[in-house]
Amino acid sequence: MNQVVVVEFLGGYIAGSLAIMTDAAHLASDCISFIIGLVAIWLGNRPPDDKMSFGYKRMEIIGAIASILGIWILTTTLVLMALQRLCTNDYELDANSMMTISFIGILINIVMIFILHTSTHILPTVGIAEAHGHSHSHNHGHGHSPATVHLHRPKSTNDNHSQLSDVFVDTTSGTTSMELLSPEAMVLNGSGLKHQTDGNDKNLNLRAAMIHVIGDLVQSFGVFFASVLIKNFPKAVFLDPLCTLLFSIIVIMTTVNLFKESVHILMDSVPQDIPMNDLKMDLSNLVGVTSVHHLNIWNHSANHKILMAHLVIDPSVHSNTVLFNATRLVQNSKYNIKHSTIQIETEAL
Known about the structure:
membrane; Alpha-Beta Plaits; Cation_efflux; alpha+beta; 51% helix; 2 domains; elongated; Cation efflux protein cytoplasmic domain-containing protein; zinc transport; Alpha-lytic protease prodomain-like; Cation_efflux_TM
């Protein structure tokens, strides 16, 4: 693929076509972004360790931003060159070479689209769907009293998450919720972790690469039609820099939203598909919940939402029941938050 980029760029230089060189530059950025994407996916699938407790999923976001910034810098440079050509009326074009090279570019981009489309179904994109329903009860000095004690079974850092389980001991009655010990009940009871593979998981790097290739394909078509017009109407040589300007604008426009989404994740902003006020209201309306505070939601990666919340409950309500209902609420189809840490605080009598 690198050889194709070099050949197309040299062909554009020989043909005197800035549009073809723009096409080659975009193709080069596509190759780079594709490589970055594959590396980011490989790093993103590494398990959490002592230094990266959340894992390496955000490498996908960093890779996407790096790819987009690269194409923006390259596009800006080519826009300046196109403007200079329009101002100086310096047009020395070989329409036949433009036509041949742009047609080759069309074929290459079609192949790349097929490869990327296939990769979205073949690459092992494992989505971590975790549900930490932690029921902690602490005395914070503001009218809350302990209700339950949350104990963790000893485990090593290499344990399989699917084997983790928690024990909830109700100190007011001296009973233990033994049902929470079974791995099958962990998610339903808001306890433990589970891993699942989601075929519909998004990957920002593959999306970035696909957007680049589609933009490059459209540009190749534009250059091809422009070369046909220039061949038949020699005075239409101004179409070459105009194609560069037009398709550079398209490339910028198609990457803005992806860039904003990536920055949104890095800033730990509330996911755009989560109605924060609705979620807080729904949690407050749970039976036994008197107030909700320290509610935080963010995206760790494009397909991995995380929630932390403190629920103050009436002392007459069993904390495990509230935990079960709260975990089930945040995991429903409306919110789809699979990784939640919910702390239960009992209101003082």
